[in-house]
Design a protein that fits this description.
This protein is mainly α. The chain has helices spanning 2-11, 15-28, 33-45, 49-62, 67-79, 83-96, 101-114, 117-129, 133-145.
C-alpha cells in the first residue's frame, strides 16, 4: 500500500521520497496521528524544523497526550534552546497525564537548562518516584551539585 511504501522509504532514510507520499495520504486522512508523526520525523531529518513543528502541533491538537509527539516536539525545542516553549509543552502535557515519569524528566531537564535547579530537582524527583530510572540517576547528580 501507499502507506507501507512511505514507511519503507522512511526506514531506508529516503525522506525526500517519503514526504510526498505522507502528503498524499494526509490529504485523504488529515487526522491520522501516525502519519503526522512520521512526516514530522522526516522533516526533522531534513532539518526542516518549522515544517516538523507544524505537523507536531497538528498531532498535539488531535491527541494532546501523545507522548511520542511531545517528545519529538521537545527534541526540536531543546536543539533550538527554546526552554520556555519546552516548559509550556510539558506543563500542558502533565495537565492531561500527571502520572507520566518521562514528562517530568523532560520538564526537569528544561528547568535545569534554564538554570532553575530547584524546579529541576523537584521534577526529576517526581519522575524517579514514578519509576523513571534515568530520573533517579539525575536526582543523584543534581543533589551532588548542590
Amino acid at each position: 500500500t501507499e502507506r507501507e511504501k512511505a514507511f519503507q522509504l522512511h526506514r531506508a532514510h529516503r525522506f525526500t521520497e517519503a514526504i510526498p507520499l505522507y502528503d498524499a495520504l494526509l490529504e485523504r486522512q488529515p487526522r491520522d496521528p501516525e502519519l503526522l508523526l512520521w512526516r514530522a520525523r522526516a522533516h526533522e531529518q531534513l532539518q526542516q524544523d518549522a515544517l516538523a513543528l507544524q505537523d507536531l502541533k497538528q498531532l498535539r491538537e488531535l491527541e494532546p497526550a501523545h507522548l511520542d509527539g511531545n517528545l519529538q516536539t521537545n527534541s526540536i525545542l531543546v536543539r533550538q534552546q527554546r526552554w520556555d516553549d519546552a516548559l509550556a509543552l510539558w506543563d500542558a502535557f502533565l495537565g492531561i497525564e500527571p502520572g507520566q515519569a518521562q514528562a517530568y524528566l523532560e520538564r526537569g531537564r528544561a528547568h535545569f537548562h534554564k538554570g532553575d535547579r530547584a524546579a529541576a530537582l523537584a521534577d526529576v524527583r517526581r519522575a524517579c518516584a514514578l519509576g523513571g530510572s534515568d530520573a533517579c540517576n539525575m536526582v543523584k547528580h543534581l543533589q551532588r551539585e548542590r
